[in-house]
Design a protein that fits this description.
The protein is built from 14 helices and 11 strands. It has about 375 residues and is α/β, with parallel strands linked by helices. The strands form 3 sheets. A 7-stranded mixed sheet has the order 1-2-9-6-5-3-4. Strands 7-8 form a two-stranded antiparallel sheet. A two-stranded antiparallel sheet has the order 10-11. It is globular, with a radius of gyration of 20 Å. The structure holds nicotinamide-adenine-dinucleotide and zinc ion.
Length: about 375
């Protein structure tokens, strides 16, 4: 396959390794095709010798698809504990059930958990590792694009409450993140496209080359071409690792990762977390954030057109019905609001951002209405 981007992916199949270093942890995020097949070797190297007892936390579906290479890599197969798939299982009751299974299976302070799955499995397993016997080690083995480019990195773990998403949790970094890009081959296309919206976000906020690569190679990326996808995952991971390394606890810079998420979260809430995948809501939210950026002169018309065209190219984004005012009202409960001030992330050209604190509800209503008008036009 020929790539016409200026960041041609390496032809070698050597995995990429990206470091994340924060005041509380330092670890590698390894990205490559077929990494699950050499997992035991990789873990032994990472732990400097003998492996402790290893427990895999996963769902029956993911285990059915990906147990073979993982199990075959171990001389002594790990114990597997299951959690059903789905966001509705991301709750405290699941953590208790998993902890009980761990205890009954003899997991101790030295045991190692492997989180094999998407963001739901990763967030729960990370939280379980944070509190089981007051904290044990774990490794993220992300199998969705969203988990590989976003949720597996950065140490945020937790579960939902009925009152809201991710309201219980802790920071607990994994020992490593090992992203086998082969696993993306079995992802439903909508999940792949939703994850690509987070990659576009990374391009917009931080990496103009990634943005251009995605502009120039949509067919290869959307067809799941391994080299093209690995290029996108690696660049997106670099953005997240770089940002988290500079601001672990989201006191400043880490907020830039929230581009498109202010209205994105509101859209998810307004549609009952059912109609859109997270990445799809972020796609619409990013379009609205681009309109705000344009109105404030932070991007030119041409840049705004490019950002919106790229988001739509990796669609389709499902349409939904909501009033702009309702969406904006829902942004007021966003966790990122500190002391009543709304931190809002603007695109500053392509590849940079500006965080502002004076975006008014009226401005957001205008942008949300522009987004809804575009949705109507596309659906017409
Ligand atoms: N911790 C963080 O920093 C962070 C960041 C972003 C999102 N999140 C969380 O991530 C979660 C969403 O993650 P997600 O989008 O990965 O959803 P998910 O974990 O629900 O996975 C989506 C679906 O894909 C299936 N699946 C997973 N891997 C597969 C594969 N290789 N082949 C086929 N099917 C596969 C799963 O069983 C599930 O049905 C949310 O709970 C969100 O709050 C956390
Ligand atoms: Zn997101």
């Amino acid at each position: 396959m020929r790539y016409d981007g200026d960041t041609v992916p390496p032809q070698s199949t050597r995995p990429a390794s990206i470091s994340l270093t924060t005041p509380s942890a330092s670890y590698e995020i390894v990205i490559g095709a077929g990494l699950l097949a050499s997992l035991e070797k990789c873990l032994t190297k990472l732990l400097g010798g003998n492996l402790p007892r290893v427990f895999v936390v996963t769902s029956p579906e993911i285990w059915g698809l990906w147990s073979q290479p993982l199990s075959a890599s171990f001389s002594d197969p790990p114990t597997v504990i299951f959690l059903p798939s789905g966001e509705r299982h991301k709750r405290l009751a699941s953590v208790e059930a998993l902890a009980q299974q761990l205890a009954l299976a003899g997991a101790d302070r030295d045991s190692l958990l492997l989180a094999l799955g998407g963001g739901v499995i990763g967030d729960i397993t990370g939280f379980l590792a944070a509190i089981y016997m007051r904290g044990i080690r774990y490794i993220q083995l992300p199998t969705t694009l969203l988990a590989q480019v976003d949720s597996a990195i950065g140490g945020k773990t937790g579960v939902n409450l009925l009152a809201g998403k991710n309201l219980i949790g802790s920071f607990h970094h994994p020992l490593a993140v090992i992203a086998d890009t082969n696993t993306l081959a079995t992802l439903p296309p909508a999940e792949l496209r939703a994850g690509l919206q987070e990659a576009i976000k990374s391009g917009v906020i931080y990496d103009a080359k990634l943005f251009r690569f995605m502009e120039q190679n949509p067919d290869a990326i959307l067809a799941g071409d391994p080299a093209a996808l690995t290029r996108v995952v690696t660049a997106s991971v670099r953005v997240k690792a770089d940002v988290v390394s500079k601001d672990e606890r989201e006191s400043g810079l880490r907020m830039v990762l929230n581009f498109g998420h202010t209205l994105g979260h509101a859209i998810e809430a307004a549609t009952g977390y059912k109609k859109l995948l997270h990445g799809q809501a972020v796609g619409w939210g990013s379009i609205a954030a681009t309109y705000v950026s344009l109105a404030r002169g932070a991007v030119t018309q041409k840049e705004a057109d490019r950002i919106i065209a790229l988001i739509l190219r990796y669609g389709p984004l499902p349409s939904f019905t909501a009033k702009a005012e309702k969406l904006v009202a829902l942004t007021s409960s966003d966790k990122k609001n500190r002391s009543g001030r709304r931190a809002y992330v603007l695109a500053k050209g392509i590849g940079a951002t500006e965080i502002v604190y004076d975006v008014t509800d009226a401005e957001l209503v205008v942008a949300a209405n522009e987004m809804l008008a575009l949705m109507k036009k596309l659906g017409a």
